[in-house]
Design goal:
The complex is a heterodimer.
Chain A (H helix, E strand, L loop, with lengths): L2 E6 L4 E6 L5 H16 L8 E4 L2 E8 L2 E7 L5 H19 L4 H6 L1 H11 E2 L2 E2 L4 H33 L1
Antiparallel strand pairs in A: 1-2, 1-5, 3-4, 4-5, 6-7
Helix pairs in contact in A: 4-5
Chain B lengths: L1 H21 L6 H4 L1 H12 L3 H20 L5 H16 L8 H10 L2 H14 L11 H8 L4 H13 L6 H11 L5 H17 L8 H8 L4 H17 L8 H12 L8 E2 L2 E2 L1 H15 L3 H17 L5 H16 L4 H16 L3 H14 L5 H5 L1 H8 L4 H13 L6 H14 L3 H18 L3 H15 L6 H12 L4 H20 L7 H14 L8 H12 L6 H14 L7 H10 L5 H14 L2 H7 L19 H9 L8 H12 L33 H12 L10 E2 L2 E2 L27 H10 L8 H11 L11 H9 L19 H8 L3 H18 L2 H17 L5 H23 L5 H9 L8 H4 L1 E2 L3 E5 L3 E9 L4 E9 L5 E8 L5 E3 L4 E7 L4 E10 L5 E12 L3 E12 L4 E3 L4 H10 L2 E8 L7 H12 L2 E6 L2 E8 L3 E10 L2 E8 L4 H15 L1
Antiparallel strand pairs in B: 1-2, 3-4, 5-7, 6-7, 7-8, 8-12, 9-11, 9-13, 10-12, 13-14, 15-18, 16-20, 17-18, 18-19, 19-20
The chains are: A alpha+beta, B alpha+beta.
């Protein structure tokens, strides 16, 4: 996979992950053109696009478009399933995910993506394993957060 | 849009409330990401892009201050990073934060580190210089006892890592392959995969560990290792054939549902794994029957197991079909796969339909009947509302185009072309149309009209080859002269009509094509006088929409037409107008025209009618000026100094002391006629500019015969030798062609049969019948072959690079074109005849091969196997015939004997000529192929010796070399030996000539053979060729050197610094003589003269002088690029020694 983009129906980029080295200028150009092209397509149309020399696989979930660029010999249908599995992972993690979850917690969305796809290849397909890895890291986070909360609570108590 | 924003806004408070109340993984974020929340909310509330910019710029300024403030804690830094990532995603520059991201990854605790690494992976790319700063952090984290830290480090390494720092982490990562946790092992494998992509040679030594990963008890680790294997097998499948069994077993287990339920995806067992394995098997089984046989069962099982209920099973099915068609065919499987393709094509789901078309596109060459089965669906897809489906259908049609359906298919393509706006699509489609039109055009009118459409739509974005090839085709024509004239005449007429249309703007390229054709061939219009054409061209010239490049073409056309015209008022007007033009180029052209116009008779001899294909010699050294220059010099004029010399002098003037003499002085007798040392260059660079353009013109068609054939003293007489490269024999007609230009009406009638939008079934049937003609069942076998041989009407001449289009459909085409004419072959046979006398018996086999190939062309309609057996049959008789002709030398038996003794497999030439040591280029269990180079005096002889290690005889051994741009492989590019006996060695020889100088090139090809019955194996190899392989000493006298030196125009000078040890002249000479194969002509004091030639006959001279530790090299050659290449080689040699 060459890159993955998430953008809203209004064309706002929500997440971008590039697996090939490109300059910022190129990335911006590709994003702009691709978002335009995909948004211009009608709902009944095919989920695959030949765009420049790449193959684009995209799917819309509610207000969000998930869009992957793959090479010509890659399997389009399985790429659709990659998108779907990612959505499932997000859904399970956030609990019925919506666009806002991804806007406000985009770093989490990135963490999940990195656990699922690594360097453009599928790393772990088991939903359980991906989420286990994420939760392990999150757990550490929560512990510290909790400590922090307690402290501040004590602190405020003292102030009274 | 505004209502959506509103909705989002109303949802916001609820979201935050929910976050605070519910807990779970999302709960903690509110406190630390509230700043981000604020930012997001702020942005959402804005209404204009301008306001957003202002807000974010402000935000970035704040962030910049915060991140660089010393009081900022790591925790705050983490929060800042998140906001920076967000800003950058919106398209704003946050590069000031990159270094802080690295710092955060380095210093932070786990949480901060995690965000730091994430920011690094999003901000930087793998060539970013800051990435080096991350290496230490990664090394530290890899050694950490905390699993989470190790995971993070491995994750970042698998995404981006500086190539040169791989050795720093490689041992650590290798260790992780033995880690007890499978997640660590898996990530380590993926990190190695990344390394394999960016620096394959650095991980070569751990291939054994990859095997271990493949056998890992954890499925995830095993699956990760498949990424590496897929990539390695793609590069070289033959090295991994032994793993086929393992891959098959794994796939069997997966398909059989033996994996943990965790790996199921919608109750399908590990679909990703299955697809990966299928792809690997497809690569392994390609053209390899024995390997393919191992996988038939499991493929059958996969096809059967995939119940059609979910997308993911279709994905597996699609891959499976692909594999079945890539490996050695088995009819049962093919049948099942074809049925599957049917399911795709007929599916109401649009995605599946698309894939069905895609599958048809790649199986169509193997099985054209499949297209027939689905013709009605294909017709429907041709008018599908989704342009992607339409395009894929056109791609499919492109592959089945033949002489009968060309008009319909090209019309469909043009329709699509007119609707599309995307440049990439236009370029692609225009190229295909032009290719098809050249190949299968039914008549002149159609061809010209189609090309007109191509030029008007493709215009200035299309590949420049298209107009060049078109013009070449017009100019060179084919064999029937009257037909050529008719085609040209039609082109001229059609362009004149187009130019009559008012208010239409044609692309510049199209106008250039028109002006060239009109300039060259307007004379064919008997009735319309050249004046009228000139008038039209002049009108174009005065138009504002014409670029100055096109104007130059137009003036060139006018110049060509002027001598044919009777009156010249317009020409005079043009001269008047453009001699004052502000464009230098146009002004020059106008002046040239003006001067020529003053002497009409001379002009006529200079611009002969219809001679664009005649070669001309441009005296690029301008030697005819020598007399003039000598005279001027004798009258005291300053000698001309080339640019670099002037610069050198200018530089040296600035120095206090100059150790270099100002000019070169030759003391040899060759230069006695000259007066001054600088006179050496006088013949050459007087007008370097025009010399160069003169050279260029001979190489490209478009300017030929237009200008620059005169020098100061007048028209340059034609010489025998050719400077261009169009020396190939003209193709022989495949059939007499029908060339009535009334065919236009026919074409129209044809087109009217095609329904454009109508739903009427009848019309569709009609369309189908016109589209799928030639695909009937009786012609399934010979479909491509037959059509090709008959209808290569406008086939380009010898120089075509069919491979270049990349889309060339069938390999058969290629073979066909390499046999483009039988006269060519007889010519080559003659060539062999000459050679055989001294090469002996061994060659006989080859000649028989040659004739076999002749035969096999006519047999091309037969299926492959049959063809081969036929060849084998025909071989003996041909062989016998040849025997009589060639009078093998007395020593035949001796030679045969020596050949049989395997020990010395080198050819006898090797004793006479320098040769390289044989190196093995490829091998497998039965054969081993090694190659070596023999540097013969007149060419480079490549020898591949194929030794049969097995105890069985090999049949139909065949070696083919892919055509390469720079080389001319003068012997027949295909060899087919009937039989290679057990444990014997067979040599294939190819003499290679270089067509254009270059530094290094690759010659690749494959060897195929058959064992016992039908089992065919193919092995690929490639050999590196360097410029030096084509350099031979040029043995000339000092006097000749002097003469040659003066006649060459292209020179290159360079000073090289030498080390102490090299500083002596003799040793340097020796190095150059040995390494570069230069001939030492003379040594005069501290100067040396060397000469060499680039095969076949491009000489290059080198003058060099040692001065202290400086070696001043001065190359001259008749070829403009050769001195540069040689200089490069010299530098390499000098550095190396």
């Amino acid at each position: 996979m060459q890159f993955m983009l998430l953008f809203s129906r209004q064309g706002k980029l929500r997440l971008q992950k590039w697996y090939v080295p490109l300059s910022d200028k190129e990335k911006k150009k590709i994003t702009r053109e691709l978002v335009q092209t995909v948004l211009a397509r009608k709902p009944k149309m095919c989920s695959f696009l030949e765009w420049r020399d790449l193959k684009i696989v995209y799917k819309r979930y509610a207000s969000l478009y998930f869009c992957c660029a793959i090479e010509d010999q890659d399997n389009e249908l399985i790429t659709l399933e990659i998108i779907h599995r990612y959505v499932e992972l997000l859904d399970k993690y956030f609990g019925s995910v919506c666009e806002l979850d991804i806007i406000f917690n985009f770093e989490k969305a990135y963490f999940i993506l990195d656990e699922f796809l690594l360097g453009g290849e599928v790393q772990e397909t088991s939903k359980k394993n991906v989420l286990k890895a994420i939760e392990q890291a999150d757990l550490l986070q929560e512990k510290t957060e909790a400590m922090y909360h307690n402290k501040s609570f004590i602190g405020s108590k003292k102030a009274y | 849009m505004s209502d959506i924003v509103e909705k989002t806004l109303t949802a916001l408070p609820g979201l935050f409330l929910q976050n605070q109340s519910t807990g779970g993984p999302g709960a903690a974020k509110a406190s630390f990401s509230s700043r981000l929340g604020g930012l997001v909310r702020g942005i959402t509330a804005l209404t204009s892009k301008h306001e957003e910019e202002k807000l974010i710029q402000q935000e970035l300024n704040n962030l910049k201050a915060t991140v660089s403030a010393p009081t900022t804690t790591l925790k705050m830094m983490k929060e800042c990073m998140v906001r920076l990532i967000y800003c950058e995603m919106l398209g704003y520059d946050a590069s000031f934060g990159y270094i802080h991201a690295i710092k955060l990854a380095q210093q932070g605790n786990l949480l901060e580190k995690r965000v730091g690494y994430l920011a690094v992976s999003l901000f930087l790319h793998e060539n970013h210089e800051l990435l080096l700063l991350l290496v230490n952090t990664v090394v530290k984290d890899l050694q950490s006892t905390n699993l989470v830290e190790v995971c993070m480090a491995l994750t970042i390494v698998s995404q981006i890592f500086p190539r040169e720092m791989i050795p720093a982490v490689l041992p650590l990562i290798e260790d992780k392959l033995q880690h007890s946790k499978e997640i660590i092992r898996r990530k380590a494998v993926l990190a190695l995969y990344k390394f394999h992509i960016i620096a394959p040679n650095q991980v070569q030594h751990i291939h054994i560990k990859f095997r271990k990963a493949l056998c890992d008890r954890d499925v995830g680790v095993m699956a990760a290792s498949l990424h590496i294997y897929l990539k390695m097998i793609k590069e070289n499948s033959s090295a991994y054939k032994d793993l086929t069994g393992s891959f098959v077993t794994i796939l069997k287990q997966v398909v059989g549902g033996k994996l943990p339920v965790d790996f199921n995806y919608h109750s399908v067992p590990a679909p990703w794994l299955q697809i990966q394995l299928l792809r690997i098997l497809g690569l392994l089984g390609k053209d390899d029957q024995r390997t393919s046989e191992l996988m038939y069962d499991v493929l059958d099982e996969s096809l059967r197991r995939a119940e059609l209920n979910h997308n993911v099973t279709y994905a597996i099915l699609f891959e499976c079909v692909h594999t079945v068609y890539s490996i050695y065919p088995k009819s049962e499987l093919l049948e099942k796969a074809a049925k599957c393709i049917g399911k795709f094509v007929l599916s109401p789901k649009i995605n599946l339909k698309y894939l069905g078309l895609k599958a048809l596109t790649y199986v169509i060459q193997q099985d054209p009947t499949l297209a027939l089965q689905h013709q009605m669906t294909i017709i429907e897809c041709l008018d599908h509302p989704d342009p992607i489906i339409k395009r894929e259908t056109l791609e499919l049609l492109y592959r089945i185009t033949n002489a009968q359906n060309i008009t319909v298919i090209v019309q469909k393509m043009l329709e699509y072309l007119h609707q599309s706006k995307e440049e990439y699509i236009i370029v692609n489609l225009v190229g295909k149309i032009a290719e098809l039109a050249e190949k299968y055009a039914p008549d002149n009118a159609w061809f010209i009209q189609t090309m007109n459409a191509v030029f008007s739509v493709g215009g200035d974005v299309m590949h420049p080859d298209i107009p060049n090839n078109f013009l070449r085709l017009l100019a060179e024509g084919f064999d029937d002269e009257t037909e050529n004239q008719q085609l040209r005449l039609y082109a001229v007429q059609s362009y004149l009509t187009l130019l009559d249309v008012e208010n239409v703007f044609y692309p510049q390229r199209f106008l250039q094509v028109m002006s060239w054709v009109l300039g060259e061939y307007a004379y064919l219009l008997g009735k319309e006088t050249p004046e009228e054409v000139i008038t039209k061209l002049y009108r174009l010239l005065t138009s504002d929409s014409i670029s100055s490049e096109t104007k130059a073409w137009l003036i060139a056309a006018v110049t060509k037409l002027t001598p044919q015209a009777h009156s010249s008022s317009i020409v005079e007007r043009l001269i008047q107008e453009f001699t004052t033009s502000l464009d230098t180029c146009l002004r020059q052209h106008a002046f040239e025209l003006k001067h020529l116009h003053e002497n009409v008779e001379f002009m006529k001899s200079l611009l002969p009618v219809d001679k664009s294909c005649e070669d001309m010699v441009v005296d690029s050294s301008l030697s005819f000026l020598d007399g003039f220059v000598a005279e001027e010099l004798s009258q005291g004029a300053a000698p001309y100094k080339p640019h670099h010399q002037r610069q050198e002098e200018k530089l040296s003037q600035e120095k206090v002391l100059n150790f270099e003499p100002y000019g070169l002085s030759f003391s040899s007798s060759g230069f006695t006629g000259r007066q001054s040392p600088a006179g050496i260059s006088l013949g050459s660079d007087v007008s370097g500019n025009s010399t160069e353009t003169g050279l260029k013109e001979t190489n490209s068609l478009k300017l030929e015969g237009i200008k620059k054939l005169w020098g100061k003293e007048g028209y340059l007489p034609k010489k025998g030798s050719k400077t261009g490269d169009e020396t190939e024999a003209p193709p022989v007609p495949q059939e007499t062609m029908i060339m009535e230009n009334v065919d236009q009406t026919m074409a129209k009638k044809d087109q009217s049969q095609v329904p454009t939008q109508s739903k009427d079934e009848k019309e569709k049937q009609l369309l189908a019948s016109s589209l799928f003609v030639g695909l009937g069942s009786e012609s399934t076998v010979n479909l491509l072959g037959k059509v090709d041989t008959v209808s290569h009407k406008f086939r380009r001449k010898s120089k075509v690079k069919e491979t270049k289009t990349g889309e060339t459909t069938s390999t058969h085409n290629m073979t066909c074109s390499s046999f483009s004419s039988s006269s060519n072959m007889t010519y080559e046979e003659d060539y062999y005849l000459d050679n055989f006398q001294d090469r002996g018996d061994k060659e006989l086999k080859k000649i028989s091969l040659n004739s076999e190939l002749l035969d096999s062309e006519s047999l091309s309609e037969l299926p492959l196997v049959e063809k081969l057996s036929n060849c084998r049959l025909s071989a003996p008789s041909l062989f016998a015939d040849n025997m009589e002709v060639f009078h093998p030398p007395q020593s035949t038996t001796a030679l045969v004997a020596s050949e049989i003794s395997l020990a010395s497999s080198l050819l006898e030439e090797t004793t006479e000529h320098m040769h390289s040591d044989p190196t093995e280029v490829c091998n497998n269990e039965t054969i081993s192929v090694s190659s070596y180079k023999i540097w013969k005096d007149d060419c480079l002889l490549m020898v591949w010796s194929l030794s049969n290690k097995s105890g069985l005889e090999l049949k139909s051994a065949n070696l083919e070399i892919a055509p390469v741009e720079y080389f001319k492989i003068t012997e027949q590019p295909g060899c087919c030996l009937p039989v290679i006996e057990a444990e014997s060695t067979q040599n294939f020889q190819y003499s290679v000539q270089m067509e254009k100088p270059f530094t290094e090139g690759n010659l690749s090809g494959f060897i195929s053979y058959q064992m016992m019955d039908t089992h065919s194996v193919q092995l690929e190899f490639s050999v590196n060729l360097s410029l030096l392989d084509f350099i031979r000493p040029l043995k000339i006298s000092t006097e000749d050197f002097g003469k040659l030196w003066l006649s060459f125009a292209n020179d290159v000078k360079q000073n090289l610094k030498m080390s102490e040890s090299q500083a002596a002249l003799p040793s340097t000479l020796k190095t150059l003589q040995q390494e570069l194969r230069l001939h030492v002509v003379d040594i005069i004091g501290n100067e040396g003269l060397l000469a060499c030639q680039l095969l076949p006959t491009i000489p290059c001279l080198l003058h060099f002088r040692v001065h202290g530790d400086i070696l001043a090299l001065w190359f001259r050659s008749s070829c403009s690029t050769l001195p540069d290449y040689l200089l490069y080689q010299c530098q390499k040699v000098m550095e190396g020694s």
